[in-house]
Amino acid sequence: MQFTKMHGLGNDYVYVNCFSETVGNPEELAVVVSERHFGIGSDGLILICPSDIADVKMRMFNADGSEAQMCGNGIRCVAKYVYDHNLARTETEFSIPGLGTFPSLLQIETLRGVLTVGLDTDGNDTVSRVCVNMGQPIMATAQIPVAVSSETVIDQELSIEGQTLSMTCVSMGNPHAVFFCENLDTIELAHTGLLIEHHDLFPERVNAHFVKVVGPNEFIMQTWERGSGITLACGTGACACAVAGVLTGRCQRQVTACLPGGDLELYWCEQDNCVYMTGPATEVFSGYWPEKM
Question: Would you say the C-alpha torsion 209, 8, 284, 61 has a positive or negative sign?
Answer without folding.
Answer: positive
